[in-house]
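G.,

No rush on this.
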Amino acid sequence: MRIVALAGGIGGARFLRGLLAVTPSSEITVIGNTGDDISLYGLRVCPDLDTVMYTLGGGINEEQGWGRQKESYVVKEELAAYGVEPQWFGLGDRDFATHIVRTQMIDAGYPLSAVTEALCARWEPGVRLIPMSDDRTETHVVISDEQGRRAVHFQEWWVRLRASVPAEQIILVGADEAKPAPGVLQAIADADVVILPPSNPVVSIGTILQIKGIREALEAKTVVGVSPIVGGAPVRGMADACLTAIGVDTTAQAVLELYGSPLMDGWLVAEEDAGTALDGVLVQARPLIMHDVESAGAIAQAALDLATEIAARRGTAPQGEDAR
């Protein structure tokens, strides 16, 4: 079975770990969000790509859900001693190595997709991880505070401000010129099913969908999503602040409508959101909290089963021994 998944950070990575557990023989391609990418201390940092890579490769800090396990922060402390900014974004010593290698390769002329492939050669995540684009894009947030109305990088709004200052606008800078990375559109075209994990619908999945040609390619496929909203609240993080910024309610219903029926064919919601409905979309309710790999795998299997049911109704059941 050939599966494509769009993924942001922690929620997407943990879902993918469950997906791998229930479909070990499937060919899985992950299209990763790069809107969160930022340059710090002269290094290019790709938080969402690294979270997927570390999680699936066994190097993630399980308690945090991001960063490396058994991490130390000597370099961060030394930078702070020199007064180097920003001090609100903490990179660990082991994590620094990844960003140094990435930046050296980019400076040598390698595109981000080739760099990501090289980094994954060490971690062996069990999936093909491709950035949404090799072109530089960054999510910025327009806010108004004591300094006036201004735009800040998404990471500053998310990490330093903890989304406490209301976002007036969220903009993916560079989206107008960005093209899908090599392999993205072909992977979608070849896919038996596409899954949208429970990642942030605005700044993770939403950014990927802004890259030219990706949404159009997905609309030709069977697409099943897993709601990141349970009972009117995000499962993790501050997705509600992002949804509010674009005028969307924090409900499974509103997120489904945000994605829209031209894109979505199936939608998994939590049991407390069982009334969710949209014409043209098959909605099913089930427990959606990922306590561990087993529960994440159960959600992933439910998404695959839903995709199989949709395809069977159309007479185009997915291929592969894992399809049921």
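When you get to it, here's the other one too:
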Amino acid sequence: MWWGVGAALVANALYSVGFVVEKRALGSLPALSAGRPLRVIQVLLTSPLWIVGALALAAGFGAQLVVYRALPIAAAQGIFVSGLVLLLLLSSAVLGEESTGRERYALGGVLVALLMVVASVREGEDVVSGGAPWALVLLVCVPALGAGVWLYVQVERRAAKRHRVPTSGIGYGVAVGLLYGVSSLAIKGTSSRLTGTDLGEAALSLLASPYPYLLLFTAGAGLVMSQTALQRCRASLIVPVCTTVTSLFTAVLGTLAFGETLPDDPLLLALRVGGTALALSVLLAMPRHDPQPAAPS
């Protein structure tokens, strides 16, 4: 269990560094549009700094494969959410982004929810699942992908209107979070296939499953959507929202799809369910728009 916790902390550091470096690189690139995905990729690949950030995220993906082989889904998501603290510190120090008081209170609520979820995990009592029925995985993932893309399009349409209130990026974060939630389930499924010593057999088993194809779609669409949103909005807001949605989606629906049972102890069950509900409540209470700049005196 503990080497899984260590891998999760490493993944947190890699993801936080990757997002901050990408955000720094995006500031010097031309404006991106999700409606022109090939152009987005072309522009991103011209930035060496952005490529460094992308490599850090790819390394975090590798660490996440290790995590899902050692920890239950709910416990893993609880640790992943803790990476928000490092992200906010880096975004403040490197990017100069300042969170509002309401957002800092919201972060405190997310950390309390994290502690509740982690406290509900007991070593030796939680079972790490080895797989899930494909039909059930697709039943969970396909509607989520559709909802994420639809929400992103709606936010883009509102953002294009003149005289609009500046958006804080909540809608972008929720939309991308749904895609990354599906990606997280696909990573969990992929890790369950990469077992044994016969690499050829493991590769064939993986290709016969829906997981690599879900990963391909979420990687492509998620790249274009997340980078466009990250260029327009503060990393210190959009990434925490995205992470919260991803973690809730994966912890709740992933636990059900992969058959990882909830705790039998009433106190532990209350901690896990209550922590999940608290994180969701915090997300719903966050401001939808950035404050208007003060008028010059």
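Residues 168 and 288 are 6 Å apart (CA to CA). The chain has a mean pLDDT of 80.

Enjoy the weekend,
O.
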